[in-house]
Design brief:
By secondary structure, this protein is mainly α. It is built from 16 helices and no strands. Helix 2 (about 40-85) packs across helix 9, helix 3 packs antiparallel against helix 4 (about 130-145) and helix 5 (about 150-160) packs antiparallel against helix 12. It is globular and about 85 Å long.
Length: about 450
Amino acid sequence: MDRSLKNVLVVSFGFLLLFTAYGGLQNLQSSLNSEAGLGVTSLSTLYGAILLSSMFLPPLLIKKFGCKWTIAGSMCCYVAFSLGNFHASWYTLIPTSILLGLGGAPLWSAQCTYITILGNRHAEEAGEASKDVVSQYFGIFFLIFQSSGVWGNLISSLVFGQTPTQEDLPDEEFLHCGASDCLMATEPTNSTQRPTQELIYTLVGIYTGCGLLAVLLVAVVLEPIQDPQQKSEGEKLHLWSNLLATFKLLRDPRLRLLILLPMYSGFEQGFLAGDYTKSYVTCALGIHFVGYVMICFSATNALCSLLYGKLSQYTGRVAIYVLGALTHLCCIIALLLWKPYPDQLAVFFIFSALWGLSDAVWQTQNNALYGTLFEKNKEAAFANYRLWEALGFVIAFGYSTYLCVYTKLYILLGILIVTMVAYGTVERLEAKTQIKPLAKEQTNQAQEEEEMQTKM
């Protein structure tokens, strides 16, 4: 097996184990710790810390410790969050959420930088296009990574499935589920039934073990890697140069336009984890169904991630972005109109599958796009990506307890439209940039031919 591919697989399975734990816990926070909004507040705090760490930590830690040890150290912060859920309270969840947030941005920036370097190195050795190899590697990563949602949610559903089922409720109890949920209405019994503390301990214990295995896998098996550009430059940047690298890259107009892509990714994931799971699934079906519905999302997301990595070579990334945007557009409009009831079980899974199909676009193509456009400033580019994605999460979770679900859907719809307009502008700028050198090269060739004919 090629060494680059082997390391991609090691990183992928490390993230699979880690996010089997974190993904399962995140999807349950709004339902499991709903008292006084503790679960949603912890998620908002978590992504607020990611936002702050994105500004400063990734370039500094990656240059200081390298991608491998940045990934391993950051994973330990995720394990701490799992430990905080053993006894969920304001004194345990908020501090561990902050700790996870501080490790979140370096973790993802190091992972994206590592895979981009591997892709570029393999492309150079094999004589292939760099953007194609990087896109393939991200497709492989997200295929394996997104499947973590399958296992994490399957574990939670099997554990919480031991909770006694509730009797059927009259239809009147479900009038305030879905887009009509304004948090002021009386919630049906399905959404307030809490698993026993013993079951919670069992679930969190399994998740903590998965996180520890992830740390060991990366620390023992993953190979350290050196960025060829950093090595050739041989620069020892000052502390403030590292810290401000994230902001300096904002001088690039392309990055300023692309800010909305990761922000929308944060908004749409925040809606799924904080609102769809609570106001649709838990409200109508019960908390033990959250895992099963999210398994459908994760499985679709994982398969589409691999598909898009291959497909982008033939269709280009624009077509894939259009597919993702249209799918989300249809889902948002349908969620505004749909009234969820327990007897419509298949519909809950259809929505999660379509959401996974679209989310796979943002996950694979956004990372590949940032890695390709900002190849010389990968650490700062991916730090920016996590910063703006985290801001989307913070805003989405921040207003989660104050707005009606239909208002959140309208906000999501507006951001999606503006995001695609900004992305289209970047693609036009890139097309013009590529046409100019080509035209110049053709002109030079024509001049050389004329000179040769004159001499003859």
